């Protein structure tokens, strides 16, 4: 699936001046504006405490903004979201297939009626042979793949990922980065990806939203002008190195501005 | 030469581990059995050396003889006690799980009634039992009530803990997917609670037996349809010490069998996924 160039994609979600405070005075996120368009791969990049996870929880509807609006283009629907947490967050008592079936199951669909989708999702993450395995039998990377399969099995409008690969070793993380991009190319999903790794955000996304802490806020947005598909070759290319340098510099400047 | 060409090579650590594993495997069974045989032998000797009369302390052989001779009567009594125990356990499971679900679904209910569940638990059943038998005419119902009072709390406490320990991210996920209260209970909270519930059940099994025995002591009426505890009382009045021992052995064996049965049930239900029941490969 060929993605449209930035700026020509239909909108999915709009955050307007979103602020979140706790107990009235702790500002977790201040005046965040973000337009998410179909097919975007957006990274929220910043140090801990910059409100990136708060932003994700707001979009997920797990907490409500203290001020500002979050609007879904065309209104909210049943199938807006898929989520991948930092932990694989699988049900240990259920098999891989049952875990991936969960989003459908909660919508009242029998396994038989969605078996094809479940199998397809597991095939896309390369785990079609592990249908009947229990999570504890899988490695950390494989568990994360199941989690990704579960998030995309319903083909939601937006997939939220909260530092999904932070706990994995670097070799596994690189492989999952590659696979995630392959997956995105195949199913054309829209992703908001929270990370604190400059390299990961540059490799994966076409837009990087740089955030700062105390109070959590957006400093600036950087677009990554490198065409997809990106693969191992891209990871070792001079282009990638240059883009990482650029993003690091932007992050540093942003941090500098934030402290000034 | 590659590693694959060689004979399997065991170093000192491997050998030590193998020895420890073998010791573990046989020792687990052999040692307790050896201790039991030694104890019985010592018991027998003590009686012989001191010429203790059998109505004070019978020899083990006599106890065994009595167990066989009185088997019909003792077995009937065992069935009665077992029936009360099992019924009490069943009601404890229904009541304990039911209350736990109610408490976790409604904070109002929990705040209102949890203190009373605790009060019921901490008041000794021996103290309540006489009152129960004044107000409850049906003897079986009275026994059941006593045994239930003792057995239901561990089920309630453990199941409540389990229902509340469902993974937070999974709860968020269920919320995001718009799961109903019932779906969250059925697909998330109840499975999360299962290991905790089974732990409580194992304790409750033993307590139900204790409750049934204590209640029988208090109820005290004899005749047809009385349980093991009453047989012990009755044999005591008649100075039939061998029968007291025989009945005691049956009660202890029952307790062990209940515990083993519930442990096995727990293992079967959890062996696929829970850390407590999964064998480690290393």
Set out the fold topology:
The complex is a heterodimer of chains A (260) and B (282).
Chain A: E1 11-22, E2 26-37, E3 41-45, H1 52-60, E4 67-72, E5 81-84, H2 96-105, H3 111-124, H4 140-152, E6 158-162, H5 170-187, E7 191-195, H6 198-204, E8 207-212, E9 217-223, H7 232-235, H8 238-259
Parallel strand pairs in A: 3-7, 3-8, 5-6, 6-7
Antiparallel strand pairs in A: 1-2, 1-4, 8-9
Chain B: H1 12-50, H2 60-69, H3 71-105, H4 107-122, H5 125-135, H6 139-164, H7 168-176, H8 181-219, H9 228-237, H10 241-270
Helix pairs in contact in B: 2-10, 3-4, 3-6, 3-8, 3-9, 4-6, 5-6, 5-8, 6-8, 8-9, 8-10, 9-10
| Residue windows where pLDDT falls under 50 for at least 5 positions of chain A | none
User: What is the N-to-C order of secondary-structure elements of chain A (H for helix, E for strand)?
Assistant: EEEHEEHHHEHEHEEHH
Q: Could you report the average pLDDT of chain B, rounded to the nearest whole number?
A: 89
User: Tell me, what's the shape of chain A?
Assistant: globular
The second-level CATH architecture of one domain in chain A is 3-Layer(aba) Sandwich
Overall pLDDT metric of chain A: 89
CATH architecture of the largest domain in chain B: Orthogonal Bundle
Which structural category fits the helices and strands of chain B?
mainly alpha
Largest sheet of chain A: 6 strands, mixed
What's the structural domain tally of chain B?
A: 2
Using the alpha-carbon principal axes, give the shape of chain B: flat
First CA to last CA of chain B: what distance? 27 Å
Report the C-alpha radius of gyration of chain A, rounded. Answer: 18 Å
How many angstroms does the end-to-end distance of chain A come to?
Answer: 44 Å
Count of DSSP-assigned helices of chain A: 8
Helix content of chain B: over 70%
Total number of strands of chain A:
9
What is the C-level CATH assignment of one domain in chain A?
Alpha Beta
- Taking Cα atoms only, what radius of gyration of chain B do you get, to the nearest Å? 25 Å
